[in-house]
Each structure stands twice: as structure tokens, then as C-alpha cells.
Design a protein that fits this description.
alpha/beta, Rossmann fold, Hypothetical Protein Yjia, Chain: A,domain 2, globular
């Protein structure tokens, strides 16, 4: 059977970074990972970080795979080519309802050649439960986890890490904390890898299959948070300083910014950029001269995005570039 691994975590928690470390660890164990990425509008941006590393990367743009993009996800899974040693990694977008997604995967009748879904939740050690009205969604994303990984432990003090661990304990979360190398070894030892798909039994992950409720009614949990995204083309070349100033001044409604940019100071190099939270640092990842995406673009994600403001700021880059 093919291991089906679902990576869940709030916007900017570190899912893609974890996967960048997990993929070579799986390869070292003799496994061949494929990746399916779900994200708002432009999952191809994250896919660029795996070009040349993973042979098969599938992108699903738009709504979460637990609701609006569910049919596209199921189609991709049904068409997956199973071979000995393959592993399928599914990177969900940051507002996914993990319970609803796991129910869909665990009980879908046409996915019997996959193992029961394994959910690894990425916890942002720096921002865990500091997201105000999004804290409930963040908690829900770890309640169904089979494994946990706490990111940014290299930049948070020991007392903060202890606080995060105590918070998880108070929530009754008993999933083991792992790391990419340990997780890869555990996947290699799965008994299902040698199990016939005809012997596969439904796996419930401890919850019922009937309609579930969040808060006031049977609505998808993150719908009430009004998450939106907007994709805005960037000039062909921009000043790095001006662009960093723009990103450092994004309003608080922007929970994540990412995209593709080319700096005037280095016109031969495309750069992927990422920023988590309006007050978080900006990170750049050079990806060479010939990415699959050739048009610089910025993607902003958050509730009630000030789209006109963001467009005006980007338009102002032209005069500074």
C-alpha cells in the first residue's frame, strides 16, 4: 500500500520547509515521494521550491481540499499510479479543516490502495495560540494529528517552547512530536506497506462519519473567518529595498504574503519571497533564471484583504523601479 501523508498547519507555520527536509530523508530510506500541494490561487509558487527535487508535483489552486477543492483532490488520488516504494505527500493550505479532510480520505471507497491517512501537524512555536480569532482553527488542526512537529524552535527561548508543550498537554494532544528524519524512518516501517489492499479496513481516527458541527452550525470551520486571497502582478524588475519596504508595511489583515519577484539589482535571478504575519520577517529563496512561472507575481492571504490598498502599493513600485 502507498503511504498517504497529510501535512496540516496554519498559514506560514512551516509546512513547505518541513517537506523540504522530509523529502531527502524519505529518499535516504529508499522511498520515492510524490507531492500534491493545495494553496490559494497559486500553488505553483510553492511547487517551484521542489523542482528538480521531486519527480512528480501536482498543484491544486483555490479552496481548501477539505471543501471547495475536495473533488479535485479525490480525482488526483484516484489517478495516482501506485508502485512499490512510492509515498504521497499532501500539503494542505493553511486554513484546512483537518477533521473534515480526514473523514473524506479515510472513508472514500476508491482509495483502498493508500494506507489510512497519516496527519502530521506543523505547530508554529513562535505564534502558536497568538492568532486571536484564528486560535480555534489552529487548535482544531492539531486535535486530529497522528504526529506533530514544532517549527522555529531555533529562534524561540526555552520557556516559550515549554509553554507551547504545556498548552498541547492541556488540550489533551498526545500525538508524538517528531522531526523529518525520525518521521521518514517511521514511514518506512509501516506494516501497511506490505499489506494487501484487500485487507484494508476503514480507519476513523477516533471520530464519527456523520456531519460534524463547529460553533453555531454545520458549517465548514474556517468559512466564518472570511479568508480571502488576491494575486497581483509585479513589475518585471523592482528595487529590492522598495519591495522589502512594501512587504514590511503590509496591513495586519495580511496573514501571509508570497510570490515570485526579480530584483533590478540581480536581473538574472528569480526569487521566491515569503512573509508570515504583517510584522514577520521577509524571506527570499533564489530559484535561478528559468522557473516554470515566468511572470513576477505577489499573492496575499488573510481575512478581509484591503485589495485596492495592496494594488496601489504595488503600482507605486513601478515609479521606484
Amino acid at each position: 500500500m502507498t503511504p498517504l501523508i497529510v501535512i496540516v498547519g496554519f498559514l506560514g507555520a512551516g509546512k513547505t520547509t518541513f517537506l523540504q527536509n522530509l523529502v531527502p530523508a524519505l529518499g535516504a530510506e529508499g522511498l520515492s515521494p510524490s507531492l500534491l500541494i493545495n494553496d490559494y490561487q497559486n500553488a505553483r509558487i510553492d511547487a517551484e521550491r521542489f523542482r528538480g527535487v521531486i519527480d512528480e508535483v501536482t498543484t491544486l489552486n483555490g479552496d481548501c481540499v477539505c471543501c471547495g477543492s475536495r473533488d479535485e483532490l479525490l480525482t488526483a488520488l484516484e489517478q495516482f499510479e501506485h508502485r512499490t516504494g512510492r509515498v504521497l505527500l499532501v500539503e494542505t493550505n493553511g486554513t484546512t479543516d483537518s477533521e473534515q479532510l480526514l473523514e473524506t480520505l479515510a472513508f472514500h471507497k476508491d482509495l483502498k490502495r493508500f494506507t489510512p491517512p497519516i496527519q502530521l501537524s506543523i505547530i508554529d512555536g513562535q505564534r502558536w495560540q497568538r492568532r486571536f480569532w484564528h486560535n480555534a482553527l489552529e487548535r482544531d488542526q492539531v486535535r486530529t494529528a497522528t504526529h506533530l512537529f514544532i517549527s522555529r524552535t531555533d529562534i524561540i527561548p526555552p520557556e516559550r517552547l515549554a509553554s507551547v508543550e504545556k498548552s498541547l498537554e492541556a488540550l489533551g494532544i498526545d500525538a508524538p512530536v517528531t522531526d523529518p528524519a525520525s518521521f521518514a524512518k517511521e514511514i518506512t516501517s509501516l506494516p501497511e506497506l506490505t499489506e494487501s489492499p484487500h485487507n484494508h479496513k476503514a480507519h476513523s481516527h477516533g471520530h464519527e462519519t456523520e456531519d460534524h458541527h463547529h460553533g453555531e452550525g454545520p458549517h465548514h470551520h474556517h468559512a466564518k473567518h472570511h479568508f480571502a486571497s488576491c494575486e497581483i502582478p509585479l513589475p518585471a524588475f523592482v528595487s529590492k529595498r522598495a519591495f522589502e519596504e512594501l512587504l514590511n508595511a503590509v496591513p495586519k489583515e495580511v496573514l501571509r504574503a508570497k510570490g515570485l519577484v526579480v530584483f533590478r539589482e540581480d536581473p538574472g535571478e528569480f526569487q521566491i519571497f515569503q512573509k508570515v504575519a504583517h510584522d514577520g520577517p521577509v524571506h527570499f529563496f533564489p530559484i535561478g533564471q528559468h522557473p516554470l512561472i515566468q511572470e513576477p507575481v505577489a499573492l496575499f492571504i488573510g481575512p478581509h484583504l484591503p485589495v485596492d490598498f495592496l494594488k496601489a502599493r504595488i503600482s507605486g513600485l513601478k515609479s521606484r523601479s
